[in-house]
Specification:
Blueprint (H helix, E strand, L loop, with lengths): L3 H10 L16 H29 L9 H23 L4 H22 L3 H18 L2 H8 L7
Helix pairs in contact: 2-3, 2-4, 2-5, 3-4, 4-5
Length: 154
């Protein structure tokens, strides 16, 4: 049975790339926190859209081209994952970055589609936000944090 003193001694003598040394993540840089918050908001918006679609379907609104429940399920699953990834990134979990990256990369063509459809009021802010989050996720401090450096803000 290992005592607290033995475990601390093991942590101090652990090689730099051992599982013991890497179990404590450095605090994420500000860019990661902001990107996580923005991604969480994007996921929350998608989940709200899913809820609205369910309410519309329950109220009797029907469309011939799409299923309100099916579209709501798709939005709920996809954007629920984006919401979880954003929260994870905000909390300093490295795996959330992958979800945030994929979400931003997929939102850029959506913004382009909206722009070419004449909905520039939505398209331009969506593209700017997605591009800004991508820049934050690929910034120097963010990449150093992802690599596990002890002080990523340098």
């Amino acid at each position: 049975m290992s005592t607290e003193k033995d475990r601390r001694k093991k942590d101090e003598t652990a090689p730099e790339h051992s599982p013991v040394a890497s179990s404590v993540d450095p605090a994420p840089p500000r860019q990661i926190k902001i990107a996580g918050a923005v991604t969480s908001v994007q996921g929350l918006i998608g989940v709200i859209v899913a809820i609205v679609l369910v309410i519309r379907a329950l109220a009797g609104h029907e469309e011939t081209a799409i299923s309100g429940y099916g579209t709501a399920a798709w939005f709920g699953i996809i954007f629920g994952g984006v919401l979880v990834g954003g929260i994870a990134l905000w909390a300093g979990r490295r795996w959330g970055r992958s979800i945030a990256l994929v979400a931003q990369i997929l939102l850029l063509p959506v913004a382009y589609y909206l722009y070419t459809s004449g909905i520039t009021v939505v398209a331009v802010p969506m593209a700017l936000v997605s591009a800004t989050v991508l820049v934050m996720l690929f910034s120097g401090p963010s990449v150093r944090w992802l690599a596990g450096e002890s002080d990523p803000d340098l």
